[in-house]
Description:
The structure is a homodimer.
Chain A: H1 7-14, H2 18-25, H3 33-45, H4 52-59, E1 64-69, H5 75-90, E2 94-99, H6 104-118, E3 121-124, H7 128-133, H8 137-144, E4 149-152, E5 162-166, H9 168-181, E6 187-191, H10 197-209, E7 217-220, H11 224-236, E8 242-245, H12 248-260, E9 270-273, H13 277-280, E10 288-291, H14 294-309, E11 320-323, E12 326-328
Parallel strand pairs in A: 1-2, 1-3, 3-4, 4-5, 5-11, 6-7, 6-8, 8-9, 9-10
Antiparallel strand pairs in A: 10-12
Helix pairs in contact in A: 1-2, 2-3, 5-14, 6-8, 9-10, 11-12
The structure holds a DNA duplex (16 and 16 nucleotides).
Amino acid sequence: MKSKITLKELAKLLNVSVSTVSKALHDSPEISPKTAERVKELAKLHNYRPNPVAVNLKRSKTGTIGVVIPNISNSFFARVLSGIEAQAQEQNQQVITYISNESLEREKQICDMLTSGLVDGVLIAIAEETHKKKEYDHLFSLVDYDIPLVIYDRINVEIPADKVGVDDEQSFYDATNYFLERGIKNIGIASAIHHVGIGKLRIKGYEKALSSENEQQMACSTDPALLRSKIHNLIANNKVEALLCTDFESTILATRIAYEEKIKVPEQLKLIGYISKEIAEYLTPSISYIEQHPVEIGSTAMQLLNNRLEGKYAPEQFKESIIATSLMHLESTKF
Amino acid sequence: MKSKITLKELAKLLNVSVSTVSKALHDSPEISPKTAERVKELAKLHNYRPNPVAVNLKRSKTGTIGVVIPNISNSFFARVLSGIEAQAQEQNQQVITYISNESLEREKQICDMLTSGLVDGVLIAIAEETHKKKEYDHLFSLVDYDIPLVIYDRINVEIPADKVGVDDEQSFYDATNYFLERGIKNIGIASAIHHVGIGKLRIKGYEKALSSENEQQMACSTDPALLRSKIHNLIANNKVEALLCTDFESTILATRIAYEEKIKVPEQLKLIGYISKEIAEYLTPSISYIEQHPVEIGSTAMQLLNNRLEGKYAPEQFKESIIATSLMHLESTKF
DNA sequence: CTGAAAGCGCTTACAG
DNA sequence: CTGAAAGCGCTTACAG
Lengths: 335, 335
């Protein structure tokens, strides 16, 4: 039961003032080497550690940053968090985690807490519901309160904040080209998110890569049953030799339909999905995927925030950092 | 740019003392209704929020708890975290997340930080490396510093702390019986963790359920190549009709070998794995699994910690809470 | 009913 | 070189 020792207690034991102890521990040149020595020795003996709450109060900061995550079961976000955490450790920041569960309501509550001075800055991936309803007032209120804000992953929104995202269009442009270069002409798209920003961008990349002689083949729907029948139509009738899936749902649906219909992947159908490494690797066959480098997204976001906190950027002028994706080849794109 | 207003500023604007403002906002009976009214009105107007750092310093607490997670990409832990977070919100606690990456070294660093007074209590799942090396000093030092500690998930360790775990033995006892009751006699085990606590318990459950007439068939190894060949031997040669896998690695290996050898699951081989819902559902075929209810583990752990913090439990007397598992049937156990 | 004072544990400009 | 004082923003026992 070593109970924590304070500066005051240390001072009493040493018969010096609190200020002297504090300065000695901070290697202030004001203090004589002899005193400094004595102080440090006793501090070490008692394993003195400054009370972080007191230090923070004095410094008028919290030493913590808030991270808002829409859905932690999504391993993309889990890995973003790990990138944030690693970077935060290096900068000696504590990470407070909030999970919005993709709910606007919850996100509002969280932002409300956050404006009360719990954290020095905020990293957020905006909930889907929020994007759908385009209700961003709670985020603007963070800005109003001068809480530095970095938006990651879903950055297609007009909020004055630093942003870290992914080049969605380029990723699908590259993926489409990968097939074209190998002589595959019938390339299809499956999407459950064709109506939202990132979905549109991915599809745009696909369209750009196709030349006029290649027919566009799309299976898009937000309705699972409808999407299933559209994908089924595309792949069971041999309309496409390769399928690009813009999201988790369509990827899983495609692999499942192939499995059920005994369509051999990659022999009869090549597949690229937008899913996390964790899932992609363990499917049978494993599914080639577009790696978004979530850990890097997280650490970049954290670095941006820290530079912002340290005043390294001009105020009212925001950074946008785009992390390049990589096409990761597993079994489903074997030639 | 609403900058935060303080009690002092509020007091000045109202021409009353800081103490009066503070009391009014806390509905102290000492304050006249009229004054209380005035104070609250102005506070609301300026959207006054007490500075949490100052409040915490005054209360000698931090208002935060630390959560140590071995590996956030493992969706089991991600979901535990979400259970913790949800419960913490209800109790108005902030959750600071630390990721040990299964590293003893990192875990030590984290515990060292944690003893400096950053948090009121700690929830930890101990890293694998730590368990392997049986080095628990850093955890004992948390106890020494009187920081309430709850150990979750990997609780087979002699540390004086509250614990929340899973009934590993029972889960496999039930799973084995599930097959026995349906007339399956040749039931095998695959394990990459047969040498560690939870692995042993699971295997023990299996052994208990088997009667003397049932032969034990085990494929156990920590070496992936060896484990693969052992599992292969078990399932490719029809030695078992059902296979129980004690962990993620053996489950994935078993599904993959079945896929490669074109062994039909569940027709020729039934499988039960110890993997997370997120993965189990998306495999083809989907794999029946033992659900450990991670969200509940998290919220239970958080509740235990909070009761401990509130002094609801006798000191030196520790709670151990076991969350029952459920056998979730997906395609791989269809009869 | 109101306010001055002490104190949570620290840091730092200032006086001596 | 050392220490008293002020202050970070709050709460609360106490005096009036």
